[in-house]
Amino acid sequence: MKNVALFGAAIAALLASACTSTTKVSTMQPGDQKMSCSQLESEFVALDNVMNEADDNKGVNTANVAAVVLFWPAAVGNYMDADKAQDLVDKRRTHLMGIYEDKNCDGAAVTAG
């Protein structure tokens, strides 16, 4: 009985490790309109980092390989989770870019995002 419990715990741990979670952002956040140009630029950098994390979670990585081997729907879930995160980043970037332009900020690197 003890071996069955250990085996069950091991399988549960493997299944849990097969899932990834990408950081999600809110499109609009309190205080967005009050952000300075430099704060907006910092937020664009942070959004780039979230987008890169989502790209990594959509690709071939240990969690996705484990998901395909152990429980393939988890791989689909990982991809959809990362895709949703990227959509939220795009919406937030558009929202912040409107504020950035309204404030007449001038950062060439921000539009590359």
What is the tally of helical segments? 4
Relative strand content: under 5%
How far apart are the first and last residues' alpha carbons, in Å? 55 Å
Radius of gyration: 19 Å
What shape does the CA trace take?
elongated
Number of strands: 0
Contiguous runs where pLDDT drops below 50 for at least 5 residues: 9-19
Indicate how many domains the architecture comprises: 1
Give, in order, the helices and strands. Answer: HHHH
The share of residues in helices is: 55-70%
The biggest beta sheet is recorded as: none
Structural class: mainly alpha
Mean pLDDT: 72
What's the gist of this structure?
It comes from Hyphomonas johnsonii MHS-2. This protein is mainly α.
Describe the structure.
This protein is mainly alpha-helical and 113 residues long. The protein has one domain. Helix content is 69%, strand content 0%. The protein has 4 helices and no strands. It has helices at residues 2-17, 37-58, 62-70, 72-102. α2 packs antiparallel against α4 (72-102) and α3 (62-70) runs antiparallel to α4 (72-102). The protein is elongated. The N and C termini lie far apart (55 Å).
